Amino acid sequence: MLHSIVIALGNSSVTHETYMTRLSDQALCSTVVSKTVRFDLTARSSTLIEQGIRAKAKTLFPLD
Fold first, then answer.
1. Got the DSSP string for 13-44?
2. 2-21 residue pLDDT tens
3. Which of 5, 25, 30, 41 lies deepest, with the highest CB count within 10 Å?
4. What is the helix (H) or strand (E) element at residue 45, kind and residue range?
5. First-to-last CA distance in the chain?
6. At 24, is the pLDDT very low, low, confident or very high (cuts 50, 70, 90)?
7. Alpha carbon 6 to chain centroid distance?
């Protein structure tokens, strides 16, 4: 099973952590931290994350 959380939200990037667990016993098998940058292929530069996407990403932060 895969489970992801957002750990940082920048102006044009999202950093997220994904955990892979084995279904049979919930043992942690893998963890990966990735940064995704919103990129305009025509302009060849990063672009700002829109408010709607930012709002959705904020719901994926872990609960305190």
1. EEEEEEEEE-TTT--EEEEEEEEEE-EETTTT
2. 999 999 999 999 999 999 99
3. 5
4. strand 45-46
5. 23
6. very high
7. 4
